[in-house]
Design goal:
Blueprint: H1 3-42, E1 58-62, E2 74-75, H2 77-81, E3 86-91, H3 96-111, E4 118-123, H4 128-142, E5 149-152, E6 170-176, E7 179-186, H5 193-201
Parallel strand pairs: 3-4, 4-5
Antiparallel strand pairs: 1-2, 1-5, 3-6, 6-7
Length: 208
């Protein structure tokens, strides 16, 4: 066999091997991506639809002044809102994505005032003083006149009986008449515009 044919055959052999390696690599990446999506889809945090929402105390740090509650006051907003439709947010961050959600919720509360829609945002973390400072900063940033920003007395992971998942960066519970109607949980970096739209799309479900 002429050398040129030998070189050609060797080249074809290695090209085929390379193609197989690439296909294996891409298949592995697709599998990992699928597993990541499955994990994200399975993330559960907080009270689930059909569950009752219990009382828990918080400290008001920022947000609405129209509810007559002074900053620094300890109270139960879940109790204050009673059977009204409400959106409860539990967040371990106070970045722009949360700011966007708070603004959208504020607008929804204004739009659905006849239905007495209410909302409040709970910041979670391991340092109470830092959380209160972040809450005040968030309040200044978003200037949401209808949504209080609070720090739960059980600030590390929220009220114990709510079952907030430590892996969830943001948990949103929508309830009416004391019963959960919808729940959304997001891992790190998952709260984006699409996620916020999904949350807002569930608001009509709790309106009376």
């Amino acid at each position: 066999m002429p050398p040129t044919n030998l070189f050609y055959d060797l080249g074809s052999f290695y090209e085929e091997r390379l193609m197989r390696l690439m296909q294996t690599f891409l298949a592995g990446m697709a599998l990992l991506a699928g597993m990541s999506l499955a994990v994200a889809a399975e993330l559960k945090s907080g009270k689930q639809p059909g569950d009752m929402i219990g009382a828990f105390d918080v400290v008001k740090c920022a947000g609405t002044e129209a509810d007559g509650v002074d900053l620094g006051t300890k109270l139960c907003y879940r109790c204050k809102y009673g059977n009204r439709p409400m959106v409860m947010v539990f967040s371990r961050k106070s970045d722009d994505s949360i700011s966007g959600l708070v603004k959208k919720l504020d607008a929804a509360v204004e739009k659905n005032s006849d239905d007495q829609l209410a909302a409040f945002v709970n910041l979670l973390g391991d340092n109470e003083d830092a959380l209160e400072a972040h809450a005040k900063e968030l309040g200044k940033k978003v200037a949401a006149p209808r949504v209080p920003i609070v720090v739960p007395v059980e600030y590390e992971n929220g009220p114990a009986d709510y079952g907030i998942n430590p892996d969830a960066e943001v948990t949103v519970i929508l309830a009416v008449k004391g019963t959960v109607v919808a729940n959304h949980a997001y891992g790190p970096g998952q709260l984006n515009k699409k996620a916020v739209d999904q949350i807002l799309a569930d608001v009509p479900k709790i309106l009376q």
